[in-house]
Amino acid sequence: MLHSCTKGGAFRWCKVCYTLVVMFNLGLLVASLISLVVLAVILNLTTPTEIGPLGVLVFLTTCYVLLFGIANLLVGLFFKLIGKKQSQRKTRLYGVVVAFAPVMLLLARAFGSMNWWTLGLVGLFEILGCFLVYKRV
After folding, report:
1. C-alpha–C-alpha distance, residues 69 and 71, integer Å
2. Contact assessment for residue 72 and residue 92, using Cβ atoms and an 8 Å cutoff
3. Which residues touch 63 (CB under 8 Å, ≥6 apart)?
4. How far apart are CA 129 and CA 132, in angstroms?
5. Are 124 and 97 in contact (CB under 8 A)?
6. How would you write the pLDDT of the chain (137 residues) with one tens digit per residue?
């Protein structure tokens, strides 16, 4: 069941929606800090040959969670600086798209295929992803 906090056509924050937004932002902060600690432990205590495939998956996932937290913060600050009001959902979706680019670049570097063509394709993916969020949401 969807919750609506519009009365008379005007949007007003109700306690439920405000609490959900605050809790999501707090959860994102905690998840980002935990992923930062996990990344620090992985980078200081293991080598790529010791960690194995599951460790690489954990590394890439924690990288993405940390980058999502940072991207969410930067996208929110960007929209505040230009003075444009965006919904929390749209800000998070832009953060999802922006946070995936460094992970793709890490994967390209790991496969040894980092060149201008790869950078161009990642940039094109970012542009298309942001355009999709802009048009669909």
Report:
1. 6
2. yes
3. 35, 39, 102, 103, 106
4. 5
5. no
6. 445 565 554 556 677 767 777 788 888 899 999 999 999 999 999 987 888 889 989 999 999 999 999 999 999 899 999 988 888 889 999 999 999 999 999 999 988 989 999 999 999 999 999 999 999 98
Q: State phi, psi for 115 to the nearest 5 degrees.
A: -155, -175
Which positions ≥6 away from 13 have C-beta within 8 Å? 5
Q: What is the pTM of this model?
A: 0.81
Taking Cα atoms as reference points, which of 134, 69, 17, 52 lies closest to residue 77? Answer: 69
Burial class (CB in 10 A: 0-12, 13-18, 19+), 25: middle
